[in-house]
Specification:
There is one protein chain. The chain folds into two domains: 8-34 and 235-266; 44-232, f41 fragment of flagellin, N-terminal domain, CATH 1.20.1330. It is 72% helix and 6% strand. The chain has helices at 8-33, 44-99, 105-128, 179-232, 236-270, and strands spanning 130-131, 134-135, 142-147, 154-159. Strands 1-2 form a two-stranded antiparallel ribbon. Helix 2 packs antiparallel against helix 4. The radius of gyration is 39 Å and the shape is rod-shaped.
């Protein structure tokens, strides 16, 4: 039967061509973005999963940076305390020498002057050592916050470094002005060395913890990034093959539509 009111073949060819062109456009978008999910219409569930993984990755990446900054701050404090330990060892030498009682008055004065300079330098280290513009030695604990992006995945690492000065080390007021004072100073300096060593031990434990945390966070970022890529990234090889297929279908669809139009023209010839 020949009909001019409804051309089923032409309508079918137009619908097929329209569908092919829409698929081709989606494929070209995938290739241009590298993503197989570019909107909720592509895969609503997949988009939600990818977004959640992205949030986890962002939180872990920043947490790794937080932990690294925490390690840097603590290492700054440890380096300063290492200098303090060296100074205290010099003070031990001076106090031991002064307590022997074989120094002349001039030598005793010189030893005490050097000792007082050491105490002043320790106080200066405590007041001037800073990280990112903030003093390192403070009565306020150093806190490092990390998170994996979930409500229950937060951790706060707290390290009390404490203030640092000749006063906090119980050395203020000590001197080598006499044998008795030198002996007392030696006892105080020895106790100060133990206190500094204890603080460095606390710092070291926190550094180890934060370093381990950073390693775990970096591993999680790698694994989650791989999962996110699987969910949302386009398979370029497969997508290129699809593009080739749709290009062929578009060309054949146009040819089919042309043939359908020619059939319509043949009906007109019957009326001539």
């Amino acid at each position: 039967m020949i009909s001019v009111l409804n051309s089923v073949s032409q309508l079918g060819a137009e619908n097929a061509l329209s569908s092919t062109q829409a698929s081709l456009q989606n494929t070209l978008l995938e290739l241009s973005t590298g993503l197989k999910i570019n909107s909720g219409a592509d895969d609503a569930a997949g988009l939600s999963i990818a977004a959640g993984l992205g949030a986890n990755i962002a939180a872990l990446t920043q947490s790794s940076q937080n932990a690294s900054n925490g390690v840097s701050l603590l290492q700054t404090a440890d380096g300063a305390l290492s200098q303090v330990t060296s100074l205290l060892n010099q003070a031990v030498t001076l106090a031991t020498e002064a307590a022997n009682g074989q120094l002349t008055a001039a030598q005793s004065t010189a030893a005490n002057t050097a000792y007082q300079s050491i105490l002043a330098e320790i106080t200066q280290i405590g007041s001037t050592t800073s990280f990112n513009g903030t003093g390192v030695f403070s009565a306020t604990p150093v806190t490092t916050f990390t998170s994996d992006g979930t409500a229950g995945g937060t951790t706060t690492t707290t390290t009390l470094i404490g203030a640092l000065s000749s006063t906090t080390l119980a050395l203020n007021g000590t001197s080598l002005s006499s044998i008795a004072n030198a002996t007392a100073a030696l006892t105080a300096v020895t106790a100060a060395i133990s206190a500094v060593s204890a603080t460095r031990g606390t710092i070291g434990a926190s550094v180890n913890q934060l370093t381990a945390d950073t390693s775990v966070q970096n591993t999680e970022v790698t694994n989650l990034s791989s999962a996110q890529n699987t969910v949302q990234n386009a398979d370029i090889g497969t997508t290129v093959a699809k593009m080739t297929q749709y290009n062929v279908l578009e060309q054949t669809g146009m040819a089919a539509l042309s043939q359908s139009n020619q059939a319509e023209q043949a009906i007109l010839k019957l009326l001539q």
